[in-house]
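Encode chain A's predicted structure.
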Amino acid sequence: MHRIALGLIVLPLLLNAQTQDDSREKKDFFENHIRPVLAQSCFTCHTNSQMGGLRLDSRADILKGGASGPALVPGDPEKSLLINMVRDYKMPKSGRLQDQQIADLVKWVKDGAYWPDPVGVNARPYTITSKQREFWSFQPLQHAQPPAVKNTSWPQNDIDRFILARLEKEGIQPAPIADRRTLLRRVTYDLTGLPPTEQEVKLLRRTNPPRRMRP
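Encoded structure for chain A:
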């Protein structure tokens, strides 16, 4: 009895897992082998232009078909107009598909012509809550008064005052001002991953040093 009860619990879980694996496999196959072929070889004539009244950019449109009827019959490649057209070299106009591409289309139709649901088709409209609107990036621009700082000699502009105010709040002292050679070394390592060349160092020595340089 316990084995039967356990089986009734485990079996649906296994079936659900198998279904998810099958869906994932079909989605991967579609995205890697089917959508690229349709996009590269079919969409030019069968999306907005709708040659023959046929669109191939959604499963519903493919099943609806065009002037010649439904483009495919899920599960039956032999009765699918799309397969017959590519086999007979009548489509695409740009040239015959490769044998493997045709084989992939046949397999796709035979497996049911899987097509992922359009993104957001069942999604509810997204709304921004009042709490979310309080986030700083949603606030209108306004002039901010620079905070007062203890070390008034360090800031060179208002931005420095905001930085220093936070450092002082955390009990942290600003780093010492870097010398020119240190700054050059940082720049070359950031841009090239290498130390400055001898020529760059000599050029640095010949230039007039600025009055002050921030780290």
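The longest helix spans residues 2-41.
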